[in-house]
Amino acid sequence: MNAETQQRILDAVDAGFEAQLATTRDFVAIPSTRGAEGPCQDMIGDLLRARGYEVDDWHINVDDLKDLRGFGPIEHDFSKARTVVGTYRPNIEAGKSLILQGHCDVVPAGPLELWDTPPFSPVIKDGKMFGRGACDMKSGTIGALYALDAIKAAGLKPTARIHFQSVIEEESTGVGALSTLQRGYRADACFIPEPTGGKMVRSQVGVIWFRLRVKGHPTHVAFAGSGSNAIMAAYHLVHALQKLEIEWNERAKADRHFKTLNHPINFNPGIIKGGDWASSVPAWCDVDCRIAILPGWSVADHQKEIMACVAAASRNHRFLANNPPEVEWSGFLSEGYELTDSAAPEAAFGTAFNKVYGGAVEDLVFTALTDTRFYGLNYGIPSLCFGASGGEMHGFNEYVELESLKKTTRAMALFIAEWCGVEKA
User: Which one is the CATH code of 3-204+336-424: 3.20.20.80, 3.40.630.10, 3.30.365.10, 3.40.50.720?
Assistant: First the structure.
C-alpha cells in the first residue's frame, strides 16, 4: 500500500471523526449492564445493516457452550443474551481474513451521586468523553466500525473476509466471544480495540471468580458469645486468601513477562452480603471474589488451591471447623494468554502504527483479561489487543481521550487495509 493510499484513508478517518463521536455518544448512552445488553445489540445490528453487511444475530444457548474450553458458569437470566456479527465478503478473496471484535456489556455504575455527570448521559469536555463504557470499550468498538467506513470513503474496498463482532459477557464470563467460535466464525487474525493506552497486549492474566458461602449460628446480639458470626467468619477466610495471593505473587516472579511487575496477581473480595438483622448475630454471609492467574497456569489446579486454602482456614476456626463453608464458581474460569505465533499480523499493525504514531509499538503486560484468549488458546488465531487511552474504568467518571481515540481509529484503518488488502471500489 503506497503513501498516497495511506493518506487517503487517514484523511477519511479525520473527516468522519465527528460522526464517529456522535455514534459513540449514542452507544455509551445505552445502559448495557449484564442482562440488559439487547438495545446495544439492536443498535449494532442496525449500523451494520445500514452499511450493507451480512448480519447474523442470534440468541446464545448456554448448553452449546458449557463443554468448551474457557466456559464460565452463568448465574443470571440469560434468556435474552445475543451475539451480533456483521460479515463483509469480497467478490474475490485475495487478502487475509480478520475478526474485529468489541464487547458492549459494561459494569454497574455504582452510586450515581458520586459521578460528576450521569454515567449514561455521555459528556465531552477537556478533550475527553465521559460515561460508563466510554473507555471500556464502546469507543473502541465504534472506532473499528468507522475505520472500515474510512476505507470505503477513501474509494477502496477490502479484498478479504471481515467479521465485525459485537459480544456480551466480556466482563463476567466471556461466553459472548466463545459463542462466535461455537457458531463457526474464524479468521487469519483477530483484533480487539480494548483501551490499552496505545500499547499492544503481550501477555494477560486469566481470572477465576468464586463465591464463599459461609454459615454462622444466630443468637440475639445480647448473647453474641454463644453464637457464631458468619460475617466475621467470612473475614477470617478473606484474610487466608490474602496470604494465598502473596504466595501466587511470589510464584509470578518466575514468569518472563509478569516478573517485571511488582504485584500482578490481585485478589479482590468484590461483593459481600450477609445477615438479616442488626441485632442478630448473622447466620449467613456470601462473598464474591476475583483472583488472577498467569498464562500457563492451570485453572483446575488453582481452583484446587483455593479450595485447599479455604479448607485449611476453616479448620483453624472455632465454628467453621465443624460447619465448613461452600465454594461456588460464579463466573470467569479463564486462562491467561500470551500473544505468540503472530509475526505476520504484528508486522502489518507495526506498519500502521509507525505511520500514525511513529516508531514501534510498545508491549503491555496486562493485569486484566480480554477476549483475545479464546482465539489464541482455543483455535490458534493470533489475537491482537490495542486501543486508546482513558481512565477510571470500572470507577466513577470513566473517560476516553479523544485524540487517542482518533489515532487508534487511524491505526486500525491502516492495519485493516494492510492486512486484508484493498482495491478500488
Answer: 3.40.630.10
